Amino acid sequence: MTADLSYDTTRREIATEAGVLRYHEAGEGPPLLLLHGSGAGVTGWRNFRGVLPAFAAHFRCLILEFPGFGISDDFGGHPLLTAFDAVVRFVDALGLDTVDILGNSMGGGVAINYALAHPERVRRLVTIGGIGLNIFSPGPAEGIRLLQEFVDDPTRERLIRWLHSMVYDPAVVTEELIEERWRHATDPETLAAARRMYGKEAFTQLTKAMESSPGPQPWAVMHRLTAPTLITWGRDDRVSPLDMALIPMRTIPNAELHVFPKCGHWTMIEAKDAFETVVLAFLLRKGTAR
């Protein structure tokens, strides 16, 4: 089975009114939507290729590539907002009644927004870091600041510094990983979209707009989530520090929190085996009540 789960054999695409969405599909069973995070050179495939065999043994895995990250068409606008729109279009286009969602960092935030807007369509939800609010740690965190520096003035040295902030174990940052991320992150269209999200000026403007918004902040509406939720976090996350988990852990009604030791932002990569065990146990558990 693993031999068949290559980039090319799993790659699919589907047309929407806003543009073409590309994704990877593997496995059979209940649909599991996997939503990637943000950052330099990120794709859904790179986030989840390592855990795909384990999840595809139980689920119809759908790894969506968000607009603005160099694989799906760029819908324009802020990548975070178009990501939510893309999920709505994607689930509708595939005719999925209900889904489980596994969201990494930004993908977790998108997943929560989707579950709030469409509670009847989300069975269970898993997040990887990236949600909540800095309580004890300063913001933006080290990893975000390093990402901003790279996006505004991309060099290999800045990329490497940012990649090291994503992990606990420096050995994870291989030359192959650096080269793979560098090629994709410096593509002109991908870089332009990243600057709409993480350029210092754009990031500052977005932060001010959110602070002055008349509506509630994203972290303040998590109590409305009805889907059973597993919050996962790397104890040594330098992109979204662990104290961010406190508000979602306390306010999401049916939330569980699992923290992986000696692990940074990429729990599905650095704590791969433990992550697979914990998440599969949650998703396959019988009788989880809303």
From TrEMBL:
Please give one Gene Ontology molecular function term for this protein: hydrolase activity
User: Would the keyword Hydrolase be found if you checked this record's keyword annotation?
Assistant: yes
Xref: InterPro entries: AB_hydrolase_1, AB_hydrolase_fold, AB_hydrolase_sf
Q: Which Pfam families does the record cross-reference, listed alphabetically?
A: Abhydrolase_1
Annotated AB hydrolase-1 domain residues = 30-271
| Keywords attached to this entry | Hydrolase
Please identify the protein, giving its name as recorded.
Alpha/beta hydrolase
**GO cellular component entries:** membrane
| UniProt superkingdom | Bacteria
Decide whether keyword Hydrolase is in the record.
Answer: yes
Q: Which Gene3D superfamilies match?
A: alpha/beta hydrolase
